[in-house]
Amino acid sequence: MSETTFTPRVFSGIQPSGNLHLGNYLGALKRFVDWQAKDVESIYCMVDLHAITVWQDPKDLMKSTRELCAGFIAAGLDPEKSILINQSQVPEHAQLAWIFNCVARMGWMQRMTQFKDKAGKNAQNASLGLFAYPALMAADILTYHATHVPVGEDQKQHLELTRDIAAKFNHDYGVDFFPMTEPVIEGAATRVMSFRDGSKKMSKSDPSDASRINMTDDADTIAKKIRKAKTDPEGLPSEAKGLEERPEARNLVNIYAALNEQSVDQVLADVGGKQFSEFKPMLADLAVSKLAPISTEMARLMGEQDEIDRILTRGSERAREITAPILRKTYEIVGMVPPVQL
Ligand code: AQP
User: Fold this and answer.
1) Who's near 336: CB < 8 A, 6+ residues apart?
2) Rounded to an integer, what is the distance from CA 204 to the centroid of its chain?
3) How does pLDDT run across 140-170, given as a tens digit for each residue?
């Protein structure tokens, strides 16, 4: 266990692999904005190197990276307060990842459920990058000595692995260099589920667009998707216990609670006894009021591509002031000969 006290620092990332959706927003992005208000140094990353662990069309990847950055800013991240970067512009992420590839064990990686889910039945044909993904994620975090990582619930296992990698590195080299990062998984919607199937998480890669609300959806589309979301025939209960075994109903209540910054109990105290025919329009109004301004602002920012590129470049410069010394020290610990002045 680490004895060193590390300065609090927040890091998190989202993949520019397609549509930024409500799950990303409630599980991650909205939390980033909350952290920004706490005045802790924070770095938020468009993890483009992670995105290419599965095929990305180059033009789409560029567009998605800029769109994601626009989403970060539209949701409330201020590039003056938080450091916004794309991963490939800060080479220390990939450099530290290589060291961590040599620290992490094959057995650890083989236990990762995300790899199993994404590789599916054809694991032999998955990219090596998809398998090694969690070591790069550990490097993303630890190249900043980040102490807190706000994420959705699906990332919990990767964050446990990040701690394992940090602990093994510290142990193997007899140092107390990398912190034991804390996952921060909080809010009423840490796992937003698909609107078509309450047993599957809402995801960018779901082929059904109706399964998710995209952060680029307009007001009509948001309302329509909520109206069509799968539910069950029962009305809403007045206590959270009544949502057990009702994944679709629970999902919509969780979303309402998270958007309205209430607890599930508070929401049910208000809406218990209502039918979905009454609750869905309430949820649609709330979602439109919270999300439509973000999509409008994203669209505006996408018209200012040069400004987005400048924000990312400036963010990367600021980031490297943190990452370069940490990587240099890591290389020294590992025993790499440093360059000298010629
Ligand atoms: N459904 C979700 N509910 C709550 N949080 C979620 N997150 C993702 N989906 C949900 C959180 O969003 C952050 C960024 O996720 P990501 O884009 O890096 O990767 P992901 O988890 O693989 O997201 P997707 O949408 O499921 O992408 P695909 O379809 O490409 O696999 C993370 O903090 C994540 O927890």
Assistant:
1) none
2) 12
3) 999 999 999 999 999 999 999 999 999 999 9
Element (DSSP H or E) covering residue 119: helix 113-119
30 lines ligand 1 (CB under 6 A): no
For a pocket test of ligand 1, which of 87, 117, 155, 192 has the largest count of ligand atoms closer than 8 A to its C-beta? 155
Kindly report which listed range (43-52, 79-88, 95-104, 109-118) carries the lowest average pLDDT score: 109-118
Mutate to test the pocket of ligand 1, among 20, 24, 156 (most ligand atoms within 8 A of CB): 24
Query: pLDDT over 90 for what percent of the chain?
Result: 94
Query: What pLDDT band is residue 2 in, cutting at 50, 70 and 90?
Result: low
Helix/strand/coil (H, E, C) string of 152-204?
CHHHHHHHHHHHHHHHHHHHHHCCCCCCCCEEECCCCCCCCECCCCCCCECCC
- Average pLDDT value for residue range 94-110: 97
Asked whether the whole model's pTM tops 0.85, one would answer yes
Which domains does the chain possess?
A: 9-190+304-334 (3.40.50.620), 209-300 (1.10.240.10)
Whether 24 is in the pocket of ligand 1, judged by its Cβ within 6 Å, is yes
Distance from Cα 37 to the centre of ligand 1, integer Å: 23
| Residue 218 in this model has a pLDDT that exceeds 90 | yes
* Separation of CA 99 and ligand 1 centre (Å): 26
Residue pair 74/24 in contact by the 8 Å Cβ criterion? no
Report, as an integer, the average pLDDT of 201-221: 94
The catalytic residue positions are: 118, 201, 204
User: Using a 6 Å cutoff on CB, does residue 254 contact ligand 1?
Assistant: no
27 touches ligand 1 (CB under 6 Å):
yes
- Beta-bridge partner residues of 14: 46
Pick the residue whose CA is nearest to atom 8 on ligand 1.
24
Rounded to whole angstroms, how far apart are CA atoms 314 and 310?
A: 6
